[in-house]
Every structure is written in C-alpha cells, then in structure tokens.
Amino acid sequence: MGDRLLAWLAVGLVAIAAFHFFALWSFLYWKFLWLDTVMHFAGGAWAGGFFFWARRRFPAYFAEPARTAGTVLQALAMVALVGVVWEFYEFGMDLVFQRGVSTYELLGQQGVRDTMGDLFFDLLGGLAAAVVLVRRNLPRA
C-alpha cells in the first residue's frame, strides 16, 4: 500500500493544487458555487489518505489504537487540523487581497456558515478516504 498510496497522494496533491489555482484564476469558484464543496471534499480525502500513508511509513510516531474506530478518529483529527489551517489561509488571503472591500465581498470567507460547511466536507472527504483505506487493509477471511 505504501508506494502506491504515495504515488496517488502525489498525483492528487498536484491535481488539487493545479485545479485550485486554475479555478481562482478563471473565477470558477464564483461561477460554480458548488465547486468549493467538491474541492474541500477532495482536500479532506487527500489529508485522510496522507494520514494513512504517514501512519504506515512512520509507525513510531502514532499511538496504536485498540480498534479500527480509533484509527479513523485519528485520521479525522488530522483532516480537521488541515481544514482549520486552510480556513486560516483563506482568511489571511482575504486580509491581504481584499483591503478596502466590504465584508460581503470577501473571497474566501463568507461567514460562519461557509466555514462550517467547508469543515464538514473536509471531514466527509477524510471519512470517505478512511473507509476505503481501512477496508482495503482488512484481513481477507
């Protein structure tokens, strides 16, 4: 799983980053409001996948949970951390690039509802990745 997952993660990160910058450049986030949701889901799935890769690559840094649920919760905690850091990034970009613009015209942060929705879809993407990766690693009976 390690090398294949790392390859998928590398391709996924490049694809997410490239599409994000393309969407910013071409104003796709404002033309298709649902695109932000898709990108947060993809980012959450990527962060969840990265957790499973890191856990396998560096086992000494991770506590061994008693059950699969513990591993999934650890993955979701990492996804939540990445999601919160991303929300700070969006807030910072608004502060830098939106000086003098009204609160209603901010690019990344449209309020608490937007932030909570973003974090929800981050976690949903992370949960989807966790379910897929846990099921792939269950012993075959």
UniProtKB/TrEMBL annotation:
The keyword Cytoplasm is annotated on this UniProt entry: no
Alphabetized Pfam families for the sequence: DUF2238 (PF09997)
Transmembrane helix as UniProt keyword: yes
Domain of life: Bacteria
Transmembrane region(s): 5-27, 33-54, 66-89, 119-138
Entry keywords, A to Z: Membrane, Transmembrane, Transmembrane helix
InterPro entries: YjdF-like (IPR014509)
Protein name stated in the entry: VanZ-like domain-containing protein
Organism expressing this protein natively: Candidatus Liptonbacteria bacterium RIFCSPLOWO2_12_FULL_60_15
Lineage, highest ranks first: Bacteria, Candidatus Liptoniibacteriota
